[in-house]
Amino acid sequence: MGKRTKQYKRLMRDFEFLGFRQPYQLLMTSDVLLDTLKLDLIHLFEKTLSTKDLKPMITQCCIRALYNKNMGPNRDPAAAGAIDRAKLFERRRCGHLMDQDPLSEFECMMSVVDPKGKGENKFRYIVATQDEELRERLRSVVPTPLMYIRRSVLILEPMAAASAKVRQKEERAK
Ligand SMILES: [Zn+2]
After folding, report:
1. 16: Cβ–Cβ under 8 A, 6 or more apart, which residues?
2. Which domains does the chain have, with CATH numbers?
3. For the chain, which terminus, N or C, has the lower number of CB atoms within 10 Å?
4. DSSP result, 128-168
5. Is 24 exposed, middle or buried (0-12, 13-18, 19+ CB in 10 A)?
6. Mean pLDDT, 10 residues at a time, the chain of 174 residues
7. What secondary structure letter does DSSP report for 13?
């Protein structure tokens, strides 16, 4: 087993200590799909998280973002393929109304991961996003495993300081 695989396994064990259970719920934004069209994305997730027991999900707003990128003069050539792939995922009903001003993916993800704005990842989602600002914001939503793609490699970030603190506290309480 590679060093990185071991490190990620240990990391996910730490997250399981904080309430994560398989199948892992894996929530991703549209940019991940757009950036990985030529890769076997699900296999990458399975390998990185050392399990086949995961549930890829996408919110209604993130799907809508893909449809928007598939229209108009600035149409993203990867969008059609990304939509096809997203259709295989479970749709996370975020409840943001289609006929009103749509939420940005950032706002949608924040409301789904931390619905009460209390800094808690209530439903224990693993989040994959290429949006650095969103990852930065989610580091203070406890506990949230964060993933992104860099040069065709799927990266699992080390546990953020806020989550690690809770992890230590829980362990001491045992
Ligand atoms: Zn939404």
Report:
1. none
2. 3-173 (3.40.50.1010)
3. C
4. E-S-HHHHHHHTTSBS--EEEEETTEEEEPPPPHHHHHHHH
5. buried
6. 90 96 98 96 96 96 94 93 96 83 90 96 98 98 98 96 91 83
7. H
Q: How far does the centroid of ligand 1 lie from the alpha carbon of residue 101, in Å?
A: 11
CA of 152 to the centre of ligand 1 (A): 27
Distances, alpha carbon 141 to alpha carbons 103, 111, 127, 163, 170, in Å: 20, 11, 11, 8, 17
Determine the distance separating the centroid of ligand 1 and the alpha carbon of 172, expressed in angstroms: 37
Q: What is the pLDDT of residue 95?
A: 87
* Per-residue confidence (pLDDT) for residue 2, from 0 to 100: 83
pLDDT on residue 93: 92
- Calculate how far, in angstroms, residue 4's C-alpha sits from the geometric centre of ligand 1: 33
* Residues with a beta carbon under 5 angstroms from ion ligand 1: 59, 61, 94, 96, 108
Q: Quick count: other Cβ atoms within 10 Å of Cβ 1?
A: 7
